[in-house]
Design brief:
alpha+beta; 3-stranded antiparallel sheet
Length: 148
């Protein structure tokens, strides 16, 4: 019957020199993991910023196409519409960040408007400050359409 007798298991013991090894490994790895998480979040912010300025350029160009006869405040309204597209997001655009180019293939008419079927371009420029990157990144997005 001695064969079926249960032995009590003793927990494995580590040598005295290995105690605290797991704590040191975690202390070394955690800063790298935090940097990776912050980098991923920063890339997400960067991608979202590019989408916002692309949409702002698109909305500005859309205003140009829908209001080709608005000659008094044509450029100011286009810039305001493009900057307004980014309101309420992480991107704060001013009208100075928006550039409107009309008739870049030919000269405008006497009243300052372009002839029909000429291209119009809205360019939005934004400076992005990443968290882990030491310098500022500048994004430019342009949308070009034909004036109807």
């Amino acid at each position: 019957m001695k064969f079926f007798r249960h032995r009590q298991a003793t927990p494995p013991t580590r040598p005295h020199s290995e105690k605290g090894q797991g704590l040191i490994e975690i202390a070394i790895v955690i800063p790298f993991l935090i940097m990776v998480v912050i980098g991923v979040l920063d890339l997400g912010r960067m991608y979202f910023t590019v989408i916002i300025i692309n949409n702002a350029a698109r909305e500005g160009t859309r205003y140009l196409i829908q209001h080709p006869d608005d000659k008094e405040n044509f450029f100011a309204n286009t810039k305001a519409v493009a900057a307004q597209e980014a309101q309420g997001t992480i991107v704060s655009l001013d009208t100075s960040d928006v550039e409107v180019t009309m008739c870049f293939d030919e000269a405008p008419t006497d009243d300052g408007a372009c002839d029909r079927e000429t291209p119009a371009r809205v360019t939005v420029t934004y400076s992005f400050d990443p968290i882990l990157w030491p310098s500022t990144l500048t994004f430019h997005r342009s949308v070009e359409m034909m004036v109807p």
